[in-house]
Amino acid sequence: MVSVSSENKEAALVDVNQTDSELGEMALDSKITKTDLAEAESSDPALARKIFLINNALDEIGFTWYHAKLFCVAGFGYSVDSQMEMIQSAVKVYVDYQMKGGGYPIATEVFYAGLIVGSILVGFNADIIGRRLLFNWSLFTTSIIGFVVGGMDNYPMYCIFMFLSTVAAGGNIATDVSVFMEYLPSKYGYLNTMMAGWWGVGQTIASLISWAFIPNYSCASGDYCPSHINRGWRYCWWTNSGIVLGASLIRIFFMKLDETPKFLVTVGRDEEAFESIKKIAEKYNRPLSLTLEELKSCGEISEDHFNKERDGYSLKSVWTSMWINLKTLFTTSVVTRSTILLFISWGFIGISYSTFYNFLYIYIASHGGDVSSSTFVSYRNATLANFVGIFGPILAGGLIMIPKVGRRGTMIFGALASMAILFGYTTVRTAAGDGGFSATTYFFINIYYGTLYAYTPEVLPSAARTTGIGLALVVCRIFGAFAPVVYYFGAESGSSVPIWVCGAIIGSLSLVSALLPFEPSKSRPV
């Protein structure tokens, strides 16, 4: 049994040589004797032992072409998440012009509601029915409904179908980060952070789509805006949905993902978990010393975990399993502290990031600035800024490899640098200044964002990983849903207070990062 020293609980690390007689020979014979984030699995010793063996097996197999494909296919889930948000943001004004004439941005709130519901449905259920099904079909559903959204001619139906499309997309990212991390050898953990660069890819794609259609196929104002002169927003939805459909078909027919072995052992399916690992080893001619007997010898996992053969898929069993997974996020004082600080991090970045970008141009315009000399220039600047943002997570992936920096140090740096740039952004009065500052802002804030996205699944218990990610996204999106309120009521005031407050909140994330108890850079994720 992997034991957790009481003196080391605060660091949440366990030496793999600290084993009982049952696991001792396996640990000593293993070629890989690294440390694990065992505190997160301490509520179920049998599961901790199984995860330890699977980690060793994945490290023994190493990085393969399967992982390279998964990096791209799972990474596009990041891309779709950001594409959806950017497309909705780009077209909302012109949809309002055509269908409701302006006023409070209801569609934006509906969009956030869809993301919140999707995060709950997909995040919670991926820990029960598995990652594979939701990973494969969430993007397909998003794209099909997205085509319908682009064909709507009245505002209520537009909002309803946009809600359904974003529900399908909302929790997709919870499965993306979990699937990739649960297959990734520990030596290549930095790729989990770099994968967030796909977020910038999605933003760039959405900006290019908007740049191509909005300036040329949109009405000038809400005074006269019939559909025949305002088809740009439709083209944006249709083009984006076509790209998402292509990505979903690649997932279904090209990647052919197997269920992750770490999920399989959490639900008592050891044979399938072993076959999943063995399949990769055999396909790429890699060594595999793990045997099914060794995996089974770790014992039976707690009956609290969901088992489809035993429990079925009744409403009662699913609800019970969800509740157990929620409690798993708060099993010990250290895990509880980690979970709460993660939720605070996601909430703070959700409201500050969204509010700043909704409110910034109002503030600049009210102080004599002219950053939008034309629609063309505005979308050009947005495209360039989002492209630069791709490289933030790439730098973050390098920074986390520095021993004295790690994940937490990288997040501290990203938060402080973003705060400084955001404060400086308020001095912008020209389109050129807007382009430069926005590109710099995206770069630094994506250092923080990318690291947080990767860090979150790394420190969550494997049995409740997507539940935790889903809840983190819910918190982020609930806080982000307040951005339109600030945008709407701050439109006439031109006060700088919201901008300075948002910058300060982002800066405070550096303190939250410093208080996080886990440092995966010094251990091996579960």
From TrEMBL:
GO molecular function, one term: transmembrane transporter activity
Topology versus the membrane: Multi-pass membrane protein
The protein's name: Major facilitator superfamily (MFS) profile domain-containing protein
Provenance organism: [Candida] arabinofermentans NRRL YB-2248
Principal location listed in the UniProt entry: membrane
Cited PROSITE patterns: MFS (PS50850), SUGAR_TRANSPORT_1 (PS00216)
Alphabetical list of InterPro entries matching this protein: MFS, MFS_dom, MFS_trans_sf, Sugar_transporter_CS
Keyword Nucleotidyltransferase set for record: no
Transmembrane portions of the chain: 106-126, 133-149, 155-175, 196-217, 237-254, 340-364, 384-402, 409-427, 439-456, 468-491, 497-518
Top-level division of the source organism's lineage: Eukaryota
